[in-house]
User: Fold these one by one.
Assistant:
Number 1:
Amino acid sequence: MEIIKGSIYDWPKYYEFIYGSDWQAECDFLRDCFGFHADGEVHRLFEPACGTGRLIYRLAKRGFEVGGIDLNPEAVRYCQERFDKANLEVDVFVGDMCDFACPTPWDAAFNTINSFRHLLSDELAVRHLRCVAECLRPGGIYVLGLHLTPTECPPQENETWSHRRGHLQVNASMWLVGRDPPKRCETFALAFDVFTPTRQFRIQDEFQFRTYTVSQFESLLKEVPEFTLAETYDFAYDLPIELNGTTEDVVFILKRESV
């Protein structure tokens, strides 16, 4: 099989295909969070690291006003084109999730699949959280999903999933390459095996994640008094959970306070 090494984000068609196939549960959960945790009505939504727009696109079709930023120009182009084809309005642009500003406050923001952990220092993470807080109105919420490092059981080190539609199939696999606990850094490889009627090839990427235990993330939040922790859920998007040493998949509901 042909192997193409590079950023998976430079292949937005296949990124959207494999990650965008399970959007329904996330959108339903987000809408429930907006109604339950935010003060007042939620109409305007912002997604830092929006990628291909897999969620803001569906939420826009449900009547929300949406916007987002992403560091990858190919992902932003793909996102803008899909909105244009559907005659939907979107405010999306290339930008750094640690250094951005919004001219008009948003009612809610969200980042659901570990993009936050690409920020490899506490300084960058704090800068990001402050940027989001400054873009939210008081009473707005930030829904932030990530994988924590458990302290009382082994962490998950690999994952596989796939999606097929018509003549296209993509098999995705992610595995741990290395871990440096003192630096709180993990290196993962991610591969998309793409099968079409005329071609079979692999897109393979490698990237680093910042690690957080429960206590480390709680300490980080203390650096951003603009937010209070309203609730925590897991990726089942069902009932609230209590954080402990076995917690790995978690969604933090952060509420913007007046400071």
Number 2:
Amino acid sequence: MNQTLEETIIAVSTPAGHGGIGIVRLSGPEALTIARKIFSLKEPEQGLPTQKMCFGYLMDDVSQETLDAGYLCYFPPSHSYTREEVVEIHLHGSPVLLNEAVRLGIRAGARLAHPGEFTLRAYLNGRIDIIQAEAINDLIRACSLDQARISFKQMEGSLSRKIAVVREKIVELLTLVETSLEFPDEEPEINSAQIRDVLRELIGDLDNLVKSYEQGRALLEGLTVAILGKTNVGKSTLFNALLEEERAIVTPYPGTTRDFIRENILVDGVLMKLVDMAGFGQASHPAEKEGIARGQQLAEKADGLLVVLDASREESSEDFLLLKRFGHKKKLLVFNKSDLKPVINRQKILDSSPGAGWVEVSALTGKNLGRLKKMMLETFSPQLEKQEEVILHQRQKVLVESLKNNLENGLRILDEGAGEELVAEAIREALPAIGQLTGEIRSQEILNQIFSRFCIGK
């Protein structure tokens, strides 16, 4: 790590493709020196002000050819993202020009940055912790405004501060318990009832964080919703209607869909990954048989199911087998083709799937599709009370659970009447989980896993 920090890195920090502006970023001890080799200021005699745009030209330092006009902005370590010298060169957004600027910078002494290395340096130099680093990447990749709001707050340190408060309370509790053990002749500053109250309060706070993960996962990763039913009930038509585009092929012939198709929609800020799949029933072709098998696997893993039934036809044994097969899953019963004369015995279907929500729709005319989306959100998206923080990553959830389990163990030991020495030891075992959560305790494997998900220029 130290050797890496001694090098100056360079990368394009704006998205790939053509645009009005592109930014090349350098960070490291030689960032300004290297930048001045490849970028010539129009008015160098006025010096280089910090954190201000200075007009100049991208130059080939060997041929002295002028390649583009743009701006250079210098950030000293005290005011930079990485707490190192940082220089941003703003050019026209041509991939050819931006890549040439990077090539010139490498020739002048920099090296190409690894994915997430700018943010890694910000972490290693103490500007941010691991939770904030994860939030930065989450904000960049946010697929909904709700997730962006949460990620921005966590990037600013909201979740880190909450964990810091938990750590402070644990350390304070340990200090009082150990003081009473060290000086048994003095009147203790804390008794068993007070220890119990503090532990219960901490456990409750941590439990709320753990429970928030399902909501966080829905915001970050999205919810997979599988559309299933027997052949020719209108699954693909419904799929297209929810997407508001003709994505799946629709024909009047059974078995048109032989593989699955996946597309995303946003429902009130929640990402839902819709999956259209082959109809369940007797396969007429090996490809269709394989599609049905894949569909069953996807349905088992999905967060929720839309079980589509043809309301214009009588219910069949295949309908009931399907409902029984996925009786354990969250699902909505969608009585499609409500624009036609109703024939299906709806009550008989509902009796076979107690507790399941249902809605009549016409995928062809769009009837009740808005209601269906609302019900999908209510049925499949975790409904939690509004709280200050939401955990977005499984890594965070696992460590918060570990922390909570250690405190619960301390509470159990206390309730069993064990000595305060054992209680203190159980509480003390919670501290490493906090260190891993915020990154105070570093693991190269975890760092590699987190920062490899970043783009190269961040």
